[in-house]
Amino acid sequence: MAVLRIFLLGAIGLISHSALCAQTGASNSGNSLTESTTRGPHFDASASKNVTALLGKTAYLNCRVKNLANRTMSPQVSWVRHRDVHLLTVGRYTYTSDQRFRAIHQPHSEDWTLQIKYPQHRDSGVYECQVSSTPHLSHFIHLTVIEPDTEIVGGPELFIDRGSTINLTCVVRHSPEPPAFIFWNHNDAIISYTSSRGGVSVSTERGETSRSVLLIQKAKPSDSGNYQCNPSNARPANVTVHVLNGEHPEAMQHGGNQRMGPSLGALAFISYVLLAYC
Ligand SMILES: *[C@@H]1O[C@H](CO)[C@@H](O)[C@H](O)[C@H]1NC(C)=O
Ligand SMILES: *[C@@H]1O[C@H](CO)[C@@H](O)[C@H](O)[C@H]1NC(C)=O
Ligand SMILES: *[C@@H]1O[C@H](CO)[C@@H](O)[C@H](O)[C@H]1NC(C)=O
Ligand SMILES: *[C@@H]1O[C@H](CO)[C@@H](O)[C@H](O)[C@H]1NC(C)=O
């Protein structure tokens, strides 16, 4: 009798111990490394990240699945476009008729990659990596397609006082390669750095973000007008420069400042009102 009671107590102890373990195991799921080898298929989120792609430059969406197959089960990994629930790939096969998509998978690899050639803005959105286990598992990856962007700092209008330096900085971001060259135009004519005007210089710095700084010393009213920055492989950008002839001392400053716009407008309005009452 005593032996049986000890056995029962032991059994209850064992059960409650395993229940406790199961509970702590569940609360740890997702970050316990030792457990990851014993559970079924799951995603490696650190190797299956959101992707930012350049317009037209081949993009790769990766999905890494751990413990995908065992002796009895071998689930498939599929890619589904969320926007229209379109099945793109299943395993190593490409299902969609859109030839820009391709499934890439090396045997024995944990990576199931979706290749997208010539990505367009409309390809931006959510892609689902799905594992056909029971129940299904899903991991969502956001693709963002961006394009080169050109900006002239302080634009679209710059007010500069006569005699000071016009300093225009053109910034080119997200170009597939640094631009081979960046041209500057003034009222549609290419700016010459060796013209008789003198005092015109440019310095260009190429990289992931490229910068071209155009400096025009001793600004004259004839330097007013539209300035355009033309990178070889990105859209142009432009600013309108107003060289002030000393008529509004309050608006004068070194370098450009867009915020001068409204106050100038207000000044013009006040002058107009004063004139109207004369
Ligand atoms: C992926 O992008 C979406 C939308 O921008 C965001 O909500 C999500 O947190 C991102 N996921 C990761 C892992 O960064
Ligand atoms: C094999 O994996 C499936 C789920 O994918 C799981 O239900 C099953 O228990 C696993 N079998 C073995 C022997 O690990
Ligand atoms: C021109 O402006 C940029 C910022 O837009 C600044 O970094 C640079 O020092 C300026 N150069 C001169 C000569 O004023
Ligand atoms: C200047 O830029 C604006 C806005 O990007 C654009 O609408 C305009 O056509 C450009 N003007 C010239 C002369 O390039």
TrEMBL record:
Protein name: Ig-like domain-containing protein
Short name of any one Pfam family annotated for the protein: V-set
Location of the Ig-like domain: 41-133, 148-240
Organism: Psylliodes chrysocephalus
Coiled coil: none
A single GO BP: synapse organization
A cellular component annotation (GO) from this entry: neuron projection membrane
Keyword list, A-Z: Signal
InterPro entries tied to this protein: Ig-like_dom, Ig-like_dom_sf, Ig-like_fold, Ig_sub, Ig_sub2, Ig_V-set, Zig-8
Signal peptide region: 1-21
Lineage top rank: taxon: Eukaryota
